[in-house]
Specification:
transcription regulation; 11 helices; six-stranded parallel sheet; 3 domains; Rossmann fold
């Protein structure tokens, strides 16, 4: 059975006014008295009136909606950034529809089409494909921000963290604390050598005269894509089984680091005495686990806000020059590394 929605005609009949008067009340029009407006709005609320955005769109109005597509909704990173997105969107009079591509290009495309079909005014995309040109086929340039990872090119506005320097600082710290055999657990979404965190890792090795080893660069496969923590754990278990020697682990994100810590514990290795662990993202949970996680930090709430601010500028001036917004990164040292507490 289809749900019957309350219409302005129903409210007008209940109050005893014209449909035009009800419409003016919703628009806060000065032609009607405050008393009449209050009666209409109270009646609408009691009757459960829901505005028909589709009808507004058909009349050529904006939807008042922004669409956000996360690449991995299970990662708490997105909820933390999402707080900033929601806050800034609300300040600008927008509501946010959130979808999850689950690291799947086909699902990501469906998400994009669903949001466009619902006529969102703007789109925030945490993309899977690392080629900016891939997303140009949707003709999204005038209302879209690509967020999360840095892109080469200038087709879209891009908001991202300073991944290269964040990774460099993390790995350089590990080396300065006496670690020489540093494993990196990398993301399966990127081609080898293309992401900035990997480049920061290799640059830190080079600057400290440590030879890069393929054996110590682990890319998570499709081991357990939904539960990222398990991926980190499984990689450590296999490395120990294969007798690969390492004294530190730098992970693409904190979720993988949580799994690494679990895997090291179960393998009988002490943290940080035997192996130091460094993550990336500084999730709220990272300071609460045992041992607390050293990691690359940045202001995720602020990042979410800057994403929306960048999108608002694009919506106001669709043809303006594209903008690249880089979020500063640093490291926070805790108990999972030597020198931490």
């Amino acid at each position: 059975m289809n749900k019957k929605f309350v219409t302005m005609k129903d409210i007008a009949k209940e109050v005893g006014v014209s449909i035009n008067t009800v419409s003016k009340a919703f628009k806060d029009h000065p032609d009607i008295s405050e008393k009449t407006k209050s009666i209409i709005l109270d009646t609408a609320e009691k009757m459960g009136y829901i505005k028909n955005y589709s009808a507004s769109i058909l009349r050529g109005k904006k939807s008042g909606l922004l669409g956000t597509i996360y690449s991995d909704g299970s990662n708490p990173f997105f909820s933390e950034v999402g707080k900033g997105i929601e806050y800034e969107a609300d300040k600008n009079g927008y509501n946010v529809i959130t979808m999850n591509s689950m690291g799947n290009l086909i699902k990501e495309k469906k998400n994009i089409m669903t949001l466009l079909e619902n006529r969102v005014d703007g789109l925030i995309l945490f993309p899977i494909n690392n080629k900016m040109e891939y997303y140009d086929i949707y003709n999204l340039k005038q209302n879209t921000v690509l967020a999360g990872q840095p892109f080469d090119g200038d087709i879209f506005d891009n908001v991202y963290t300073d991944e290269f320097n964040g990774a460099f600082k993390a790995v350089d710290y590990l080396i300065k604390s006496g670690r020489k055999k540093i494993m990196m657990i990398d993301n399966f979404l990127f081609k080898i050598g293309k992401n900035k965190r990997y480049q920061g890792y290799t640059y830190a090795l080079e600057k400290n005269n440590i030879k890069y080893s393929n054996k110590l660069h682990k890319v998570v496969g499709k081991l357990d894509r939904i539960h990222r923590i398990n991926e980190g754990k499984k990689i450590i278990e296999k490395a120990v089984k294969d007798n690969i020697k390492f004294d530190a682990v730098f992970t693409f994100n904190d979720l993988l680091a949580f799994g690494v810590i679990k895997g090291l514990h179960e393998s009988g290795l002490k943290i940080p005495e035997d192996v130091s662990v460094m993550g990336y993202d500084d999730l709220d949970l990272s300071s609460m686990i045992t041992p607390s996680l050293s990691t690359v930090k940045y202001d995720k709430f602020d990042m979410g806000g800057k994403i929306v601010k960048t999108l608002m500028k694009r919506l106001k001036k669709p043809d303006k020059k594209t903008e690249r917004v880089k979020i500063d990164t640093d490291i926070v040292i805790r108990a999972s590394t030597k020198g931490g507490e």
